TrEMBL record:
Taxonomic lineage from the root: Eukaryota, Metazoa, Spiralia, Lophotrochozoa, Brachiopoda
Family: Belongs to the Nudix hydrolase family. NUDT16 subfamily.
Span of domain Nudix hydrolase: 12-149
A UniProt-annotated Pfam family: Nudt16-like
Cofactor field: Co(2+)
Organism: Lingula anatina
PROSITE patterns per the UniProt record, alphabetical: NUDIX, NUDIX_BOX
The protein's name: U8 snoRNA-decapping enzyme
Main EC class the enzyme belongs to: hydrolase
Length: 195
């Protein structure tokens, strides 16, 4: 697949795919923080936070390319945690870069999630494309800011923040109202500290 031609022979779109891996039982790790899940993201080479993945090579299907990128970037073992069409969540176009972006999400057990996270630092691209795994703080402390709200004030690549929040609701990790509150508290934090 690799590229898809636009209408009327326009320049082709390239395909890119990124993926969220999570375990629903975050409370087992930090009960005192009421952690709602363990969600894996990463610090990219460019300083943005994003999900692992990347651009498909010519001739690759999206799932093949995604599994290749995940192996390179986070050392995901494709024989154990291969992404399939079943894991597809959404696709959209970014007009400026002529990319068709595909997003995937996979639920794993807590043990698998921690093992996947540990493998990241042995991956081929650790230290240059990927500067480190990140666990999303899936809780909010009593001041209503520390935890997820402040995390959301970081810089995210492309639509990674929207993809994160979309999956948190889709996978029933948080309700729409809880997410909205976290976003409002993030804005309050930014208004005070990030003018
Ligand atoms: O997590 C993401 N969510 C949405 N869009 C993303 C995400 N990560 C990157 N991107 C966008 C921005 C980039 O222009 C393209 C290509 O992704 P990238 O991972 O940088 O691709 P390569 O590793 O260079 O193949 O997607």
């Amino acid at each position: 697949m690799g590229k898809t031609w636009g209408k009327n022979g326009e320049k082709p779109y390239r395909h890119a795919a990124h993926a969220m891996i999570y375990a629903p039982d975050g409370k087992k790790l930090w009960d005192m923080y009421e952690n709602k899940a363990v969600i894996l993201m990463m610090m990219r080479f460019d300083g943005y936070i994003g999900f692992p993945g990347g651009i498909m090579d010519d001739g690759e299907t999206v799932e093949f390319g995604l599994n290749r990128e995940l192996e390179e970037e986070i050392g995901l073992d494709p024989t154990r945690h291969s992404f399939t069409k079943e894991d597809h969540v959404l696709s959209y176009v970014t007009h400026n870069k002529r990319l068709l972006l595909h997003f995937y999400c996979k639920k794993v057990t807590l043990e698998e999630c921690l093992e996947i996270e540990k493998r990241t630092i042995d991956a081929d691209e650790y230290g240059w494309e990927v500067l480190g795994p990140i666990r999303v703080p899936m809780f909010t402390l009593n001041d209503n800011e520390r935890g997820l709200p402040i995390f959301l004030s970081n810089k995210f690549i492309g639509n990674a923040k929207e993809e994160l929040l979309y999956c948190i609701e889709r996978e029933n990790i948080m309700t729409k109202e809880e997410i909205q509150l976290a976003l409002e508290n993030c804005e309050k934090f930014k208004a005070r500290y990030m003018r």
